[in-house]
Structure formats: structure tokens, C-alpha cells
# Entry
Amino acid sequence: MGQDDCVSGDRGWQLVVPIKRAELGKSRLIPPLGISRPDLARAMASDALAVAAHVLGPGAVLVVTSDEPMRTYAESLGMGSLSDPGGGLNAAIALGFAHARTSSLAVLLPDVPALKNHELQHALTLAEPHAVAMVADHTGTGTCLLTSRQGPIATLFGDGSAHRHREGLGAVHLSVQAPGLRQDVDTAADLDSAMALGLGPATIALLQR
# Structure
């Protein structure tokens, strides 16, 4: 699928995954010796996409990115893709929402390499009764997963997004036992914590090289 193709979550959720160009992302993350930051960012995103494809089916996942290796990988899984329009994370998500064909929408940030299939499935199940819902990151300040059952919404990702999504969008905070979903990776310490939870195969393979 190319950038002008749409994907449809005919039954259930349409998941948008915004992925920064790897050279520009994760500026605070110091990777292990011998591993480049872009390679690590791509490996983590690949693991998140693999979980999304397993849980929802690749046709229900839409990746918004200007990173060509990630775009190629997403399309190889059968996912739709769109070119990142620039303007930041919320602009990328808005573009993905604009191409969705369902009112049940979700956003997953891809820096969760310890995410497990059952965690994503459980979080989405808990979100179903709510107009807008969210899962906070391990610090409680950021947002790893945001859902809407009322069509496109103006997301508020960025520093302190958990508070803004609760106050600005009325998002229900989901108390889900999903440490892999909540363990986003921004620093070397975060990566250590994700490793303790069990990383996905792409990240493991990179770290074991």
C-alpha cells in the first residue's frame, strides 16, 4: 500500500501509529555500545508494529512516517502508510485519522518494545465502553495509547500529555495491568526496564548483535 491508500477497521479499531524519522527521534536515548540510535529506534518500532498486526490484523493499522525503512517494513506486513506531513506528532496523527474509515480510532506510540499481544488487546477491550480513553506511560505523565469511539479527535501529545488528554479531551484513564504497554523508552534506564519485562524479537536481535 502506498501513501494514498486507506486501510479499514471494518470491525473494531483502526490503529494509527506515528513514527518519527529515526535520525530525529530518541535524542535522550544513549544506546548500548556499537548500536546506533536510529537502528534501535527502528527495532523498537518494528516490535510495536508486529504486536499491532497480530492483535488487530495489518489491514487495521495505518503508519504515518517519513522514515523510509519503517514505511517499507510496515507495508511488508500489509499495513497502510502515509507520509508524515510535518508539524509534529499531533499533525501526523490527524492525517492518519483523516484517512480512517471507522469511528473507533486508536493511537499507539511505537517506543514500547516490551509490548505484549495480550496487553494491547486488553487495553483496547477496556477502552470500548468509553468515548475517549487513554493508557498513561510508566511515569504517569505521558500517553502510550489513546482511543476514541467518536471519530477523529484533536490529540494533545507532548510533555504532560496524560493530564492534557484527561482535562482537555475528557479521556478516561484506564487502569490496565500492562507494564510492557506503559514502558516507553526514552532513556537508557527505560531500555533497561523494558529489557527486564522482555523485549520483542527485533530489539533483542539488534542488542545481541
In short: The first strand starts at residue 14 and ends at 19.
